[in-house]
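Review box. Two proteins, two foldings.
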Amino acid sequence: MKLIGRRNFLAGMGLGAGSSLLPSIFRSMMPEALGQTRLPRRLIIHLKVYGSEASHRPQPGASDDSFTLGTNWSPLEKYHNELLFFDSFNNPYNRFLHGNRWPLSVVSDGHKDEEAGTIPPGGISFDRFMGGQLGKTDAWPSLNLSPVWPDPKGYYGSSADGPGKVFPILVDPVDAYAKIFAGGSNANLSIEAPRRLARDQSLLDFLRADVTRLSTGLAAPERAKLDQYLDSVRGMETRLAAFSKSKLSCSALVPPARAAFTPTWGLDGVAYAQMFAAHTDLGINALACGLTHVVLFQFAGDYYKFLGEDGRIGHHHMWHDEGTPIKFQKFYNYHATFLAGLRDRLGQLGEGNGSMADSTLTMMIDEGGGAHHNGSDRIPVMLLGRLGGALRTGRFLKFAKGQRVVSDVFVSVANLLGVPINTFGTMSAGPLPGLS
């Protein structure tokens, strides 16, 4: 296909049912197809809560900037040289007993009640800001995936488009699948997606005519890339099918009413673990298919009984009365395994001369900071990903208490991803030195 043909191909496709998913896949292929060497930059945010004591974190090594992961974070050892660990940052805004409300906004919400649990955001959150910068033409500028059950006003969350403008959490994986991969201009697709999951059928079968039309118009390299994306989506559908069958019968036309869904505090451990796994599939495939460039995974502090411990295995509960070393280790091992799993999946998706891992930065940040109560001036941050060598990794950077604020991290990440800013939220001292 000639270059001009590639440029104009999408406009003349006349796509039918696949008018949301397939153009996004095609757009994600275009830079490489057109010979552009700069790959799209992507951001994953892993947000956990309730803090971590200094002894629970990776520790400084023998040299000034080296570190050891220890038993808590050992599942990340294979990516040791791709990690950059910061200790630690201050967030003076919206503090309450267990951390910071709206920790990705770094702006005051105007409320004084430290115990307020349902307060509106005071400004745009970092995930939504970066989504608007990196994914201006994306179907979803960013995604917010979590098993956390929001309060009725939607204020228990971390994602916002501005003062008082909550960006909602996608909780139910089947609902989220229908919205992310089957939304857009064809409303019937949102109904068809869960139907086909329940019947072990692929949404891509429903889009067969559009897939064929797209594939036959591509040159061989782009056709191979399209096949890779579609295979990844099919794999995700297979894993989602098991989850959806517990909620949908084979004859169901639409998902069950929201009232039938059990809030997270009532879920058994197996269901909660399945939701985590399903959200991972959704986020990675949405990135791979070009539907978004930014994904936020928000984790609750409780409901980790699937880790195999008796009693209350939630992080909040462990802080108070059942925090044995083995429980803390299992809890942190789970989060480290989640991060390593994201990196594994990114490394399996080819892009350019390498993989999607070369152009994706994962940031883990703890809303609660240091100690379980009042630790917001000791917030740890971990970055995973070299960004093609743009980021100097394999290091531990320690800042004195109060020296830097968490918005400095956001400014630094934005600049690393090609978004030149000097401040974010209400305050920032600018990018952190010596990262690139």
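Next protein.
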Amino acid sequence: MNVKIRKSEIDGRIAAPPSKSYTHRALVCSALALGVSKIHAPLISDDTESTRRLLGEFGVEISGDLEQWLVKGGELRKPRSELFCAESGTTLRFMTALCALLEGESKLTAGPTLSRRPNGPLLDGLRQLAVTSVSADGFPPITIMGTGEIRGGEVTLRGDISSQFVSAILIIAPLADGNVSIRLTTPLESKPYVSMTTHTQQKYGVDVDTSDDMREFHIEKQSYRPTDFAVEGDWSSASYLLAAGALAGRLSVEGLNEGSLQSDASIVGILGEMGAHVVCSGSEIAAEMSGLSAVDVNLSDCPDLFPVVAALCAVAEGRSILRGIGRLRYKESDRAGAMIDGLRAMGIEAKPQRDSIVIVGGAPKGCAIDPRNDHRNAMAFAILGLVAEGETTILNAECVSKSYPEFWNAMRSSGMKLRRTDSEQ
């Protein structure tokens, strides 16, 4: 499916979709808790469905509807077939860790893009817990040879490649046969995602002792307990809605936690720094069209904001610098490269530097954009299409289902002039 967008004026109120990151974490912690947990308002998307489906392969019973899932966990079994993680990096990393708890061989596979994303540091961390694995330099397919238990001890990891490696080991560490200490040899990037992991663990009765600089973690042997977990609104998806309001009218997003641990809540501060008019009222955040100015911002703790902030910078007056984006080449696409190519195609000056990108704001022109199967790129260029001259076409627009399946419906209801066409046309 392609989506064609024309310049539009936005006005509306939209409920934020549930958090993808919290849904993943609640599912896995529920699977490790002996008994029945309730997950309220889970996100149903391609990625979370991958995690839910594979937990079923582990013998976890998950039932319910759009409003609530019941998860019966605590007794994992070895999967009878290969674990296909599709294109969900979180699923792959978390399921790899869960396989370490089982006896026997478990094989994890992935879609073409995810198969090019590295996992070596995670496998090395598991090796330090006496877990053997086989892979081609850390890339899927990955086979875990479990013994039914993991040992305690110290694990050293790099913290500047993927926070998911740290989160994956944190999740299984309480179930080791002794206490586990994790020490990071480099500063941790995307710290809020690890904070979300330990926050979710705490809700399930597991305590993690964390140093102030988040370079050291100590986890004593303990058990997960069933709980009721309410998934808050997703700031990552909401950032595109707020950006739409700031660019092309006014948009209010409901169901957000202003004090959230989610790193992408920082979109409010970034919008404010750029001169956007943002109003926070309880769980409702509104952004209104205003003249935007260039920004110099480090996105190392919130890399998922890069596409939407880049779209904002494309129309902001002046020269913006987006820093801390080196790891984006390991995302669903070479996200930084894809954004640069798309911005240039729309007539916007964008120049890569060592760990940053310089964007000079201008007047974007509509064209055909290939998001390279990256949901965040697709949404970012769609937002930019609201103010571009002519028509903007987002190819393979269904890729937004990875995190926000209702994105196109939400934008249409708010005034985006869009039409769907078959990809062949």
